[in-house]
Structure prediction request, 436 residues.
Amino acid sequence: MAKGFSDGIIRLEDVNFYYNKGMQNEMHALTNINLEIKRGEFASFFGSSGCGKSTMLYMVSGIDQPHSGRVYVNNHDLTKFSAKQTAVYRQIGIGLIFQNFNLIPSLSVFDNIVLPMSFLGISKERRSQEAKKILQYLDISNLANRLPYELSGGQQQRVGIARALANDPPIILADEPTGNLDSANATRTMELLRDLNKNHGKTIILVTHEAWCLRYVDRIFYMKDGTVIKTEEVKAEDMPTGETGKGIDEHIKVLNPAAGKLDILAESFSSLLLRGYSREELKRAEYFFKRRIKNELTYAKLIEELDRPFREGGLGLWKQKAKKIADAVEEIIEEDFEVSLIHDKLKKHPNAPLSEEIENIRRWLLEIYRGNLSPSQSDSMDECLGERLRGIISNDSFVKVLSLPKRIGGIGFPIPTALKISDRLDMLLTTNVEPH
Ligand code: ADP
Ligand code: MG
Prediction:
């Protein structure tokens, strides 16, 4: 048996990997990686662009071999597999999901899903049965005969997920699966991954640079410059759905401890308001947001910058979208001011009544919710908002109250709505916490 036999489904030992090894442009992409992922875990490689996340997936999927070190899958040393064994592992051991969906353009949705099964000698009938089941699970049976170009991005990603499930692999590897999706489809994709993990026993490894995705995972490997700088197990506590209560800024702080309040605020804005944009675009947006917060840009100037073509140093958003984003920034800045006032008030009088402020904040939080609250729901919401503002309850509990059914004292929001609301509130609260 290999040294350090363990119950990890995936284990990397002293892995090093280089691009262009021995050449002038040699790039040490992974340095002494040691880590373990347990069976049934939802793990994530998190870090900024270029830190080696995709390369890590190439190691785990056998696409590339490390120059030194070992990669174990179920205690089998992948680096010692024959070409044939590696091929079998890649066909039935893992399912891959990509940012650009990677569908075969000339094949129908149905055939894209069946294709991975055809290499395995499964009868045509069985293949067809399996594909139908998967289509049904992903709620895309009606798209079976379409070609990829006839689908929206969100639909294409669901086909991408369907294809990854084709041979029922125990491990799913997803490389920035939300990177090209709008926020509704990005959320849906994360929810699907969670369902595959929690209800279908899949071990999932998610590669992402988007901190909001981390609320879905059990274990985070923070990566920087080809190394894992921190591993964190996310305690699901008693949350039925396993969300973490961590604000996105805390994840960002792990990667960049020197980040000040302003950086974190600007990064939070850009990752929340521009979900699905590229790293480069987010960085640029952050810069504009930071300048607006410091009042170096006026509101009108911010719109102008967001609207300016990317090549000319702007963000290339169409005018209406630029305005919408700028408006959201204004609101957050204003609300931030309100929250600072509340904190000052509480500092002087810890038990001071906050009903007026709370009502304002509630109204602002609910702008993203289209329904109406009954008076008793508003009361419950004000109560838990008050407790959250006074620091009595955690973000986790806040989400819980928002999402619990009305009959047991909750408000009854769907979980995605509860999360969006708590994200919004979190963003306000974090602006009032000094970085350590
Ligand atoms: P991430 O997925 O975190 O963005 P990657 O794993 O793709 O990062 O890349 C890690 C580093 O290796 C980056 O600096 C990248 O530029 C470099 N790199 C990636 N692929 C290649 C390649 N085929 N040839 C040379 N360098 C590469
Ligand atoms: Mg990558």
